[in-house]
């Protein structure tokens, strides 16, 4: 992402990232220093590490929504609200990684794996999971604390809070449906797209824009434009994620490209392949996807079927169509040119990324 | 608990319980009917069931703190804040039960066990745990939503929120320390009491009183009286819980009296027994406590050592001393006589309960 085209006045993307990261670092340093329970300092420590290396896409979108809706530049308020969303995202990822049995996140062992290493003996794994549940809970608590420290006016708070609350429920319910489908892949493409809509499109793109815009006092018209832009873009973002989950390079994604297959994630890619598969291919997919000890050779077989059934190409096409739909939604939007450019850039980068 | 002595004007304990329970039932019915994702209706359904049968001790203390600090009777606000704490407690229990491998809660299978039954095959257990993590997360989200719907004035909110946030962190950090000690019991009595202070005394007694009082605009003097009352009472409450965890009748506690021993919970009772044990007794305790397949006969052996080492009697004595200290803290407190009576009753019931 070039700084130039994302230059939202003085609040460029790079500056937004830096402001949010600095705020979170300071917040967690304070939590370590003025600890309620100093014996538990390991938790803010792991969280601080966890928070470095994220893409900070939700904070960027929050600031973009704010600027597009006419919010003043250099606002400490919007930075804090954006930081609160990033902290919430840490919560969501830490819990997701437990549910998905993930080993790697942002190039490091996942939180439950790091915490397992703190305990010895047969209970270590269980301890790691329990402590990571608590670490996630703490991140949720602290994200709420950051939100309340942002000194919003009562009117701002009343506009923003219902959207944040809706966002929290949506991502949890989306993740629940995702989990329910995991390990039992089907050819039901529609239901994989419903999961993407809640778990990603609304959570990652639509709600952060809405939150920034609500903070700036935007009306329903602005919200609708953001929805029209965000839903296809968010679906495309998830479809790209599904491809990276199978084809990505761990050195750039920070995640193993075996995790999704091993856990049997019911992605749109998998559903499309099952829909187009002949009986032999379908049997092989059912055997390999969801097998916790799947190796590189097995993954290669799966990838071969994704290519042969045309599923991979279809997903690329779906991404392209959604990308275009998303950018078209900006036509005639009553936003400053700089905000339009930022949103166009974000759409391009989110759908064409390699990490 | 008699209705008479707990009669806080028209807001008696029974009425408080009923108001809170009704509010939560209505809230969850609305969540089911206007579901964000109707396919996920199972989650509010389980939560509604989970919320029936609780002792509602935190809501009662919230209302008591409010009335003691001069809050007006029949306030819908305080009922909603109390309901928000009870919903938060559901979150905490659902996650705790996962960490503690508990099988029973309030006489029913724990949430993760109920959710496991929704899935077939080898992944069922893992699904149950993941879905219960999400159910807990959702309860947290909804507890926050209830708090914000309570229509507090900005001044009330600014007084109450920091206490709520502190309470959330305290219980999570206390639970983390508890988890870290579990499976590896020691004779460190002090550290078991630190865990009780954070996980129970502050969370169950002190903070609910503070929250009710803050809502009514109480000053620091009132807060200090509540702290002096709450900390010994809360420790006594936890010590009683530790005894019930080993000696309680599942028909009245709703929990198995093998769970704590099987998971190897490092309670004050266990620490005292280890401190006083001879080498033979200590070896036996280490062998039996934390053994996941401990049976009734093994538990009997443990109970025998708790008696022989005097640990059981010491815990009873500690409860009695703390009970007295707690009630004495009320001497000369500037509260209405009815509030003092309610607090005295609560202290008696919390330390002498059988469930």
TrEMBL record, chains A, B:
The keyword Translocase does not apply. Its cofactor is Mg(2+). Pfam families: polyprenyl_synt (PF00348). GO terms for molecular function: metal ion binding; prenyltransferase activity. SUPFAM superfamilies: Terpenoid synthases (SSF48576). The keyword Metal-binding applies. One of its GO terms (biological process) is isoprenoid biosynthetic process. Gene3D superfamilies: Farnesyl Diphosphate Synthase. Belongs to the FPP/GGPP synthase family. This is Polyprenyl synthetase family protein. It comes from Streptomyces bathyalis.
């Amino acid at each position: 992402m070039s700084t130039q085209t994302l230059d939202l006045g003085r609040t460029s993307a790079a500056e937004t990232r830096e402001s949010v990261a600095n705020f979170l670092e300071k917040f967690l340093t304070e939590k370590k220093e003025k600890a309620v329970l100093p014996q538990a300092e390991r938790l803010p420590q792991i969280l601080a590490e966890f928070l470095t290396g994220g893409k900070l896409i939700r904070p960027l979108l929050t600031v973009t929504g704010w600027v597009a809706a006419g919010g003043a530049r250099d606002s400490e308020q919007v930075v804090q609200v954006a930081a609160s969303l990033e902290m919430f995202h840490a919560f969501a990822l830490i819990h997701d990684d437990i549910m998905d049995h993930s080993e790697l996140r942002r190039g490091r062992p996942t939180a439950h794996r790091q915490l397992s290493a703190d305990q010895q003996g047969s209970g270590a794994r269980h301890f790691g999971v329990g402590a990571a549940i608590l670490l996630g809970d703490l991140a949720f608590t602290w994200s709420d604390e950051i939100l309340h420290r942002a000194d919003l006016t009562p009117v701002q708070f009343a506009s923003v809070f219902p959207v944040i609350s809706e966002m929290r429920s949506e991502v949890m319910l989306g993740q629940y449906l995702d989990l329910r489908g995991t390990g039992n892949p089907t050819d039901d493409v529609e239901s994989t797209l419903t999961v993407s809509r809640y778990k990603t499109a609304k959570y990652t793109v639509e709600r952060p824009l809405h939150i920034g815009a609500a903070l700036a006092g935007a009306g329903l018209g602005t919200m609708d434009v953001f929805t029209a832009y965000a839903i296809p873009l968010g679906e495309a973002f998830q479809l790209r994620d599904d491809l990276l989950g199978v084809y990505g390079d761990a050195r750039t994604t920070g995640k193993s490209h075996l995790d999704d297959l091993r856990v049997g994630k019911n992605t749109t890619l998998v559903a499309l392949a099952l829909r187009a598969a002949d009986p032999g291919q379908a049997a092989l997919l059912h055997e390999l996807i969801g097998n916790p000890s799947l190796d590189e050779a097995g993954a290669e077989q799966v990838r071969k079927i994704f290519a042969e059934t045309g599923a991979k190409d279809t997903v690329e096409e779906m991404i392209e169509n959604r990308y275009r739909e998303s950018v078209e939604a900006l036509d005639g939007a009553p936003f400053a040119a700089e905000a339009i450019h930022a949103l166009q850039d974000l759409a391009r980068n989110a759908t064409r990324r390699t990490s």
